[in-house]
Amino acid sequence: MNQVVVVEFLGGYIAGSLAIMTDAAHLASDCISFIIGLVAIWLGNRPPDDKMSFGYKRMEIIGAIASILGIWILTTTLVLMALQRLCTNDYELDANSMMTISFIGILINIVMIFILHTSTHILPTVGIAEAHGHSHSHNHGHGHSPATVHLHRPKSTNDNHSQLSDVFVDTTSGTTSMELLSPEAMVLNGSGLKHQTDGNDKNLNLRAAMIHVIGDLVQSFGVFFASVLIKNFPKAVFLDPLCTLLFSIIVIMTTVNLFKESVHILMDSVPQDIPMNDLKMDLSNLVGVTSVHHLNIWNHSANHKILMAHLVIDPSVHSNTVLFNATRLVQNSKYNIKHSTIQIETEAL
């Protein structure tokens, strides 16, 4: 693929076509972004360790931003060159070479689209769907009293998450919720972790690469039609820099939203598909919940939402029941938050 980029760029230089060189530059950025994407996916699938407790999923976001910034810098440079050509009326074009090279570019981009489309179904994109329903009860000095004690079974850092389980001991009655010990009940009871593979998981790097290739394909078509017009109407040589300007604008426009989404994740902003006020209201309306505070939601990666919340409950309500209902609420189809840490605080009598 690198050889194709070099050949197309040299062909554009020989043909005197800035549009073809723009096409080659975009193709080069596509190759780079594709490589970055594959590396980011490989790093993103590494398990959490002592230094990266959340894992390496955000490498996908960093890779996407790096790819987009690269194409923006390259596009800006080519826009300046196109403007200079329009101002100086310096047009020395070989329409036949433009036509041949742009047609080759069309074929290459079609192949790349097929490869990327296939990769979205073949690459092992494992989505971590975790549900930490932690029921902690602490005395914070503001009218809350302990209700339950949350104990963790000893485990090593290499344990399989699917084997983790928690024990909830109700100190007011001296009973233990033994049902929470079974791995099958962990998610339903808001306890433990589970891993699942989601075929519909998004990957920002593959999306970035696909957007680049589609933009490059459209540009190749534009250059091809422009070369046909220039061949038949020699005075239409101004179409070459105009194609560069037009398709550079398209490339910028198609990457803005992806860039904003990536920055949104890095800033730990509330996911755009989560109605924060609705979620807080729904949690407050749970039976036994008197107030909700320290509610935080963010995206760790494009397909991995995380929630932390403190629920103050009436002392007459069993904390495990509230935990079960709260975990089930945040995991429903409306919110789809699979990784939640919910702390239960009992209101003082």
Automatic annotation (TrEMBL):
<dbReference type="Pfam" id="PF01545">
    <property type="entry name" value="Cation_efflux"/>
</dbReference>
<keyword id="KW-0862">Zinc</keyword>
<keyword id="KW-0472">Membrane</keyword>
<feature type="domain" description="Cation efflux protein transmembrane">
    <location>
        <begin position="5"/>
        <end position="267"/>
    </location>
</feature>
<feature type="transmembrane region" description="Helical">
    <location>
        <begin position="236"/>
        <end position="259"/>
    </location>
</feature>
<feature type="transmembrane region" description="Helical">
    <location>
        <begin position="95"/>
        <end position="116"/>
    </location>
</feature>
<dbReference type="InterPro" id="IPR027469">
    <property type="entry name" value="Cation_efflux_TMD_sf"/>
</dbReference>
<dbReference type="InterPro" id="IPR027470">
    <property type="entry name" value="Cation_efflux_CTD"/>
</dbReference>
<feature type="region of interest" description="Disordered">
    <location>
        <begin position="133"/>
        <end position="161"/>
    </location>
</feature>
<keyword id="KW-0812">Transmembrane</keyword>
<feature type="transmembrane region" description="Helical">
    <location>
        <begin position="209"/>
        <end position="230"/>
    </location>
</feature>
<dbReference type="InterPro" id="IPR058533">
    <property type="entry name" value="Cation_efflux_TM"/>
</dbReference>
<keyword id="KW-0406">Ion transport</keyword>
<dbReference type="GO" id="GO:0010043">
    <property type="term" value="P:response to zinc ion"/>
</dbReference>
<feature type="domain" description="Cation efflux protein cytoplasmic">
    <location>
        <begin position="275"/>
        <end position="346"/>
    </location>
</feature>
<comment type="similarity">
    <text>Belongs to the cation diffusion facilitator (CDF) transporter (TC 2.A.4) family. SLC30A subfamily.</text>
</comment>
<feature type="transmembrane region" description="Helical">
    <location>
        <begin position="64"/>
        <end position="83"/>
    </location>
</feature>
<protein>
    <recommendedName>
        <fullName>Cation efflux protein cytoplasmic domain-containing protein</fullName>
    </recommendedName>
</protein>
<feature type="compositionally biased region" description="Basic residues">
    <location>
        <begin position="134"/>
        <end position="143"/>
    </location>
</feature>
<keyword id="KW-0864">Zinc transport</keyword>
<dbReference type="GO" id="GO:0005886">
    <property type="term" value="C:plasma membrane"/>
</dbReference>
<dbReference type="InterPro" id="IPR002524">
    <property type="entry name" value="Cation_efflux"/>
</dbReference>
<keyword id="KW-1133">Transmembrane helix</keyword>
<keyword id="KW-0813">Transport</keyword>
<dbReference type="InterPro" id="IPR050681">
    <property type="entry name" value="CDF/SLC30A"/>
</dbReference>
<dbReference type="Pfam" id="PF16916">
    <property type="entry name" value="ZT_dimer"/>
</dbReference>
<dbReference type="GO" id="GO:0005385">
    <property type="term" value="F:zinc ion transmembrane transporter activity"/>
</dbReference>
